[in-house]
Amino acid sequence: MADETTVDRDEETTVAIIRRWRSGECKGQLLVLFPELPADIDGRFCESWDPGSGHGGASYWHMVIQLSAPTRPANPDDDDVKRAITTLEEGYGYRLRVMKRRTPQMDANYRANLHRMRHPSGG
After folding, report:
1. Mean pLDDT across the chain, nearest whole number?
2. 92 in the Ramachandran plot: left (φ > 0), alpha (ψ -120 to 50) or beta?
3. Residue 36 φ/ψ, nearest 5 degrees
């Protein structure tokens, strides 16, 4: 019997882009973007996660990129990034692939996932 705290890991890899807010009341805080996962059926937002409020939607191009700066996930001294990755992988079951920026392939995957969201029966 599985322990109640056991989290099943995703079989597929989830692309994540980790950024920090540049200013305002959230200055310095992390935001993790999932650029291949639509957050709404209209296709305006991608899924996101931040340590303070959890999962939500984020406007990748219109807000987040202009108001935040990329992190350096390879930096061994960035404890916030390590903690976020650990929380997402161990606490939520993600299998993350951390990337620096959104690519055309991620955009294509986003559109395909949005189509599946809009047409769950495959239509």
Report:
1. 88
2. alpha
3. -95, -5
The SS3 assignment for 60 reads: helix
Q: Which band of pLDDT confidence, cut at 50, 70 and 90, is reported for residue 71?
A: confident
Residue 6: pLDDT band with limits 50, 70, 90? low
pLDDT tier at 7 (50, 70, 90 boundaries)?
low
Dist CA 78 CA 90 (whole Å): 18
Nearest to 18 by CA among 36, 34, 32: 32
Confidence of residue 63 (pLDDT cuts 50, 70, 90): confident
Tell me the residue ranges of DSSP E strands in 2-116: 14-21, 30-38, 46-50, 54-58, 68-70, 96-99
Nearest alpha-carbon partner for 64 in 80, 75, 48 = 48
State how far the Cα of 12 lies from the Cα of 109, in Å rounded to an integer.
13
In Å, how far from its chain's centre is CA 59?
Answer: 12
